[in-house]
Amino acid sequence: MTTYDPNPYDPNNVFAKILRGEIPNKTIYEDDLTLAFHDINPQAPVHALVIPKGAYVSMEDFSARASDAEIAALFRSVGKVAEMLGVTQDGWRILSNVGSNGGQEVPHLHIHVFGGKKLGPMLVKG
Ligand code: AMP
User: Fold this and answer.
1) Domain carrying residue 34
2) pLDDT digit string (tens) for 23-38?
3) From the CA of 40, how far away is ligand 1's center (Å)?
4) How many domains does the chain have?
5) Residue at 33 is within a domain
6) Catalytic site includes residue 38
7) What residue's CA is closest to ligand 1, atom 13?
8) What's the CATH number where 94 sits?
9) How far, in Å, CA of 19 to CA of 32, rounded?
10) Residue 2 in domain
């Protein structure tokens, strides 16, 4: 049994509002368990976000509490989105910022998908 106790999920975070349809998004792909949409402030020619529909703060929260189906769905969505956005031929990157040191701004697990140019050794964030 896991003893992991994540930060409480904030149901008013921006991605929760997107999932409830309270604010708009540019959807790329959606299924029962995941949603993928374009980042509002793209850091590369292709910059998408893939999120689980469940209320998970971070990767450790997700990996501890999510069902196998949710975990599989998230990673299948990431692959589908990369195909849909046309980045698989030339290469691309995924990133998930977690917590303060990771620079996480939105406390709902999200996987960034970057592509469309040479991304360099690492994406630097202020
Ligand atoms: P992070 O710093 O990893 O938490 O990333 C949060 C990301 O969410 C940033 O890249 C923002 O540009 C993006 N973002 C914030 N609000 C929205 C929104 N309403 N629609 C799409 N992307 C957003």
Assistant:
1) 14-115
2) 999 999 999 999 999 9
3) 6
4) 1
5) yes
6) no
7) 39
8) 3.30.428.10
9) 11
10) no
